[in-house]
């Protein structure tokens, strides 16, 4: 059997569109297969505006929203935007959603339930494909256009991973570079797919990974402590069951959640208190094993190979670094060729 090719995506959060257009040029030139942005209205620019720019600025990579939510977006509005973006991008869009994290926390709204996500995901997918759908008791239809669009879910727990196996075209895992975590997630997705006559082989699985160039792996991990805090707060925010979390870390994770500052989520310049939290609670090494690829080039290549050996084939490399353009150029020159 031929090994599956390794695919790489990357993403950024948009605050300045002149810089974003330069970022898009470099990202496409670096050979990334997928370019993404996030949906958190209080922290970054609107993702549908950003992806419109991306659709016009690029020609080759797929474009994705990783991820949105059912609470700040109505499915008819989402689907209408996606169909428009599919026209502008020549069919390169994918749409990811989950229950809602910083987008809803920063406006005082509770995250969506699994039932909410089920109804929402089916509605968006059906509307894009041209179907009439029932959503919260109302019939919805797009009367101006249609374009089938892959719908992805970000899923960290057994219930959302099971649902993703049932309804999603792709799954984004935020904390699954550890072999045990990845294997457990794949088990849940497989069971969900089998329950409706689907196969996991028909579902793309993408692992989020924070990449940080540094002279040593430890130095790179240290730079990303604020992101470790944010990822842990997100992944374990509802519960810790079925997520391969050892008992010794449960109370420490709970304490991190009690003290986490969501107003500085994924915002390096304001997140020092969150960074100190993972230090204080002794969580740095444990969390880094699940989400970070850091250090000199050789170590980052080795780390990716370790993840591939554990079953990962698709990586979304987040860029919480000072020099994003330089990081992408280095990736193109020194890392991507190792996985050609």
Rg estimate, integer Å: 19 Å
One letter per element, helices H and strands E, the order comes to: EHEHEHEHHEEEHEHEHHHHHEHEH
Distance between the termini: 18 Å
Helix content: 40-55%
The computed structural class is alpha/beta
**Count of helical stretches:** 14
Query: Could you describe the largest sheet, including whether it forms a barrel?
Result: 8 strands, parallel, barrel
Approximately how much beta-strand content do the residues carry? 15-25%
Uncertain spans:
none
Compute the number of strand runs.
11
Task: Describe the protein's architecture and organization.
It is built from 14 helices and 11 strands. It has helices at residues 17-29, 47-57, 75-89, 102-105, 114-128, 158-167, 179-194, 217-223, 225-235, 247-259, 272-280, 284-291, 297-309, 324-335; strands spanning 7-11, 34-37, 62-68, 93-97, 133-135, 138-140, 151-154, 170-173, 204-213, 292-295, 314-318. Strands 1-2-3-4-7-8-9-11 form an 8-stranded parallel β-barrel, surrounded by 6 helices. A two-stranded antiparallel sheet has the order 5-6. The protein is globular and about 55 Å long. The mean pLDDT is 94.
